[in-house]
UniProtKB/TrEMBL annotation:
InterPro entries named among the record's database cross-references: P-loop_NTPase, PhoH, PhoH2-like, PIN-like_dom_sf, PIN_dom
Classification via SMART domains: PINc (SM00670)
Protein name: PhoH-like ATPase
Superkingdom of the source species: Bacteria
Annotated Gene3D superfamilies: 5'-nuclease, P-loop containing nucleotide triphosphate hydrolases
GO cellular component, one term: cytosol
The keyword Secreted is assigned to this record: no
Family: Belongs to the PhoH family. In the N-terminal section; belongs to the PINc/VapC protein family.
């Protein structure tokens, strides 16, 4: 294939899994060129059928390629197809300046005997090696979400990279925790023009100072030296309005019989119980109380206060071990094995007597009447009205899946996402590209959303000790 030798450009060879993961990845390489081996098109063709997210992504890639070909019928494919010739949105089009190349002939290169060319991954390696020899003025880079393929590419001296465009942050440590520790001299530097007032039984402060511009809406503030705890309600430049947070560690402020055991849990309950906060994300390791606190807040506001009609619970059905296979029954019955955490927490929230029979029946009654379990597979096209929606194991969702779910929320609905980015079971997702990380970062400036990272385990001394030493 004759290719123009343009100095400074790079040629990215895309693996199939990159396109399956992000259909718009074709247009994410700015001024650089993109190359698709024929084996990639073959693999895409074999994965286009079905209702899964992967199949939908593959069909979208096919539509993109079809649009590009139709818009450039007069252009020789071997000379490259401009990637900025179809409408993709102003932000994306302004950055795209490269061309798309598709393999049109056999590209032979001698692979080691241990890498037979009949395997799809090795065929891609073969193409990348051949391009490296032909495109001497450009650096050929193989882009793949498959770690093993990148390892094999490195052993063959092929430059290989992960697909970075889906990353929300460079490092997960950059993700904000939802809390901000105030310095000891906070009042001296921020209380010169302070106003305070009470409204509907709540205490508010208007403070001014350099730290105000660093805060986010509904971020939780605290001071270690005087037990001051507050929540940011509004930011206006270097001025912020903060509200004194409720202390849910006290029995008088229990939620469905549950009290917070630490500052983080108390802040989480402040967000969960606030009707003005429509979207809440809780991130933390196992045993930090994410599910228990959320269910308690959901039952309190649904059954006792009548703010919502029902509690809707869903999660990604990704098995940790061997798949349990097909399950009989209705949608709710099929989801039951995946909802062990829900059942465990409902047992805690439902009262029990000495014999346990009444408690068990009460739990079942609450489950059937107020708490509905639904599968993520049937969420597309739905609208949730006046519901308290809980998305468990949200770290296993892609940003696109998360968008699909969050946009289902209708009037009067509160949506809570729970997860632990350190326990991702979905292939090709990482801590920095998870859908949970995505929404935490994107919603941090919205005045009707809040986030808390729970760090302290409160399950048991055995669980706490095991998490430290194992």
């Amino acid at each position: 294939m004759a290719r123009a030798k343009i100095s400074g450009k790079r040629l990215f060879v895309l693996d199939t899994n990159v396109l399956m993961h992000d259909p718009s990845s074709l247009f994410r390489f700015a001024e650089h060129d993109v190359f698709l081996p024929m084996i990639v098109l073959e693999e895409l063709d074999g994965s286009k059928k079905g209702a899964s997210e992967t199949a939908r992504n593959v069909r979208q890639v096919s539509r993109f390629l079809d649009d590009l070909l139709n818009q450039n019928k007069s252009i020789d494919i071997e000379k490259g197809i401009p990637l900025n010739t179809i409408p993709l949105g102003k932000e994306l089009c302004e950055k795209v300046a490269g061309k798309l190349y598709v393999q049109t002939r056999e590209m032979a290169h001698v692979l080691p005997a241990t890498l037979p060319g009949t395997k799809a991954d090795n065929t891609i390696l073969n193409v990348a090696l051949a391009l490296s020899q032909e495109a001497r003025a450009e650096r050929v880079t193989l882009v793949s979400k498959d770690i093993n393929l990148r390892i094999k590419a490195t052993t063959l001296s092929i430059h290989a990279e992960d697909y970075f465009n889906d990353r929300v942050l460079d490092e997960i440590e950059q993700l904000h925790t939802g809390m901000f520790a105030l310095p000891p001299n906070f009042w001296e530097s921020h209380a010169k023009k302070m106003d305070s007032w009470q409204e509907k039984g709540r205490t508010y402060y208007r403070v001014s100072g350099p730290l105000c511009s660093e805060w986010f809406a509904n971020q939780c503030l605290y001071k270690e030296d005087d037990d001051f705890e507050a929540i940011v309600r509004r930011i206006e430049g270097k001025t912020a309005i903060i509200e004194i947070a409720s202390d849910y560690r006290h029995k008088n402020h229990n939620v469905w019989g549950i009290v917070a055991r630490n500052r983080e849990q108390s802040f989480a309950l402040n967000l969960l119980m606030d009707p003005d906060v429509d979207f809440v994300t809780l991130q933390g390791s196992a045993g930090t109380g994410k599910t228990l606190l959320t269910l308690a807040a959901a039952l309190e506001q649904t059954i006792e206060r009548g703010h919502y009609k029902e509690v809707l619970v869903t999660r990604v059905t990704v098995p940790v071990g061997e798949d349990i296979g097909f399950l009989p029954g209705t949608e709710e019955e099929k989801m039951t094995p995946w909802m062990g955490a829900l059942m465990d927490n409902l047992e805690v929230l439902a009262p029990t007597d000495d014999h346990g029979e009444w408690g068990h029946s009460a739990t079942q009654d609450v489950l059937k009447r107020w708490v509905k379990v639904r599968s993520l597979n049937f969420m597309r096209g739905r609208t949730f009205l006046n519901k308290f929606v809980i998305i468990d194991e949200a770290q296993n969702l892609t940003p696109k899946q998360m968008k699909t779910l969050v946009t289902r929320a209708g009037p009067g609905t509160k949506l809570v996402c729970l997860g632990n980015v350190a326990q991702i079971d979905t292939p090709y997702l990482t801590e920095t590209s998870s859908g949970l990380t995505y929404v935490v970062d994107r919603f941090k400036h919205w005045e009707h959303s809040g986030h808390i990272t729970l760090k302290r385990g409160e399950r048991s001394r055995l669980a706490d000790y095991a998490s430290e030493i194992l």
